[in-house]
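Lecture notes, unit on binding sites. The following record was shown on slide 14. It pairs a sequence with nickel (II) ion.
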Amino acid sequence: MSKNKDKFDTIVTVAVAAIFFAAILYVFLEGQNHSSTSQKQEPSSIENTASIGGPFILTSHLGETITDRSWPDQFLLIFFGFTHCPDVCPTELAKMKMAFEALPQKIQDKIQPLFITIDPARDDQDTLGAYVGLYHDKLVGLTGTQEQIDAVVNAYRVYAQAQAPDENGYYVVDHSAFIYLMQPDGRLSDVFSHSTSVEELVSGIQRQVN
Ligand code: NI
């Protein structure tokens, strides 16, 4: 009897956890949906915005110490990736560049674009500097110790998983590919996915930055 009750309790616990997870996912996806289709100004949900982002301390490709408060009056447009990425990062950074350049100058002036590496072992200052220079003068590359990178990756709920190296020591890092727009006060303004078009990114940014 008590065994059956334990079993039942376990089933209930799993079911509650599954419903809870589905609800969070729903809120997140709804938020994404709204951000790309509606004219709403405010972030779509508190649950969503409250938990993504946070303090970080990193080093720029120019060797400066950079924190989440380094540009207190700017929105931050952040992408996480690695310079050896064969496809996703070049695609997303090109999209970010095109969207940024399509924005009116006065909007551009309120945004600091950032590329944060998830592969600090290979992405040192010089490697990052050469890489961000391919995209935009204003793009700042950020690296740090593995511990500093782990902290910012966790804060932004980035998925990053290094794969086994090949015979030449080359490895890829599987990663999520969201573009985050952070408000000057550090809260999440909006998040754009891999499937967001350049046009949607431009309009999404313009809805939030004014
Ligand atoms: Ni990538």
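Take-home: The radius of gyration is 19 Å.
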